[in-house]
Amino acid sequence: MNRGSVGTSYGTMSGAISSPEDAATPDGGDPSPFRCSQNPADANTVARARTAFTGWLHQHCPLTTTTAHDVLLAVNEALANAVEHAYAGTSGNVDLTVRYDVGRDVLTATVEDYGHWRPPDNTVDTRHSRRGRGLVLMRALAGDTAIESTERGTRVSLTWHHLSGRAAPG
């Protein structure tokens, strides 16, 4: 894939793949990962990545509509957090890589930025705010959530297990 481009599989939210076998490539292997690499960390990138990822997700993963919405919301939140919090007034890039392991029935989405982690402001009362719930939301929607922050940036990994158990009835 070219640097600065978004994957090009498009789809709609209406369909669900009914079994893991339908999600596999014709040779029975794992689908190619979805990648959105080295794109500007901005709202346009998030929107384009979300659209392209939606198509890839529906093409390759056995999900109910509800689970697909959970995955898309969690990934969108991770992307939005990178855009909003990583660069604090400067520009930078954000990457999204998603892999579906058919054999293990595991989907992993990784969002990376190259900015500086800003810890949550725990002095803000979120009970009366519409902000400050992104990490809580991601953790509630994904099976596993891991956040790594170094001087080179932040990596958020969201993992869902046993997707075929959540597939739409065939």
In short:
The chain is of the alpha+beta class. It is 30% helix and 25% strand. A 6-stranded antiparallel β-sheet has the order 1-2-3-4-6-5.
CATH superfamily: Histidine kinase-like ATPase, C-terminal domain
So how many helices?
4
Could you say what the CATH topology is called?
Heat Shock Protein 90
State the secondary-structure class: alpha+beta
Q: Mind describing the biggest β-sheet?
A: 6 strands, antiparallel
Total domains = 1
How large, in whole angstroms, is the Cα Rg? 16 Å
> Which CATH architecture?
2-Layer Sandwich
Measured between the Cα atoms of the first and last residue, the distance is: 34 Å
Spans with pLDDT under 50 lasting ≥5 residues?
1-26
CATH top level label: Alpha Beta
Instruction: Please tally the β strands and state the result.
Output: 6
What are the secondary-structure elements, in order, as H or E? EHEHHEEHEE
Tell me what you see in this structure.
The longest helix has 21 residues, at 65-85. A six-stranded antiparallel β-sheet has the order 1-2-3-4-6-5. Helix content is 30%, strand content 25%. The protein is built from four helices and six strands; from the N terminus they run E-H-E-H-H-E-E-H-E-E. The N and C termini lie far apart (34 Å). It has one domain: Heat Shock Protein 90 (2-Layer Sandwich), CATH 3.30.565.10. Strand 3 (93-101) and strand 4 form a beta hairpin. Residues 1-26 have low confidence and may be disordered. By secondary structure, the protein is α+β, with helices and mostly antiparallel strands. Helix 2 (43-60) runs antiparallel to helix 3 and helix 3 (65-85) runs antiparallel to helix 4.
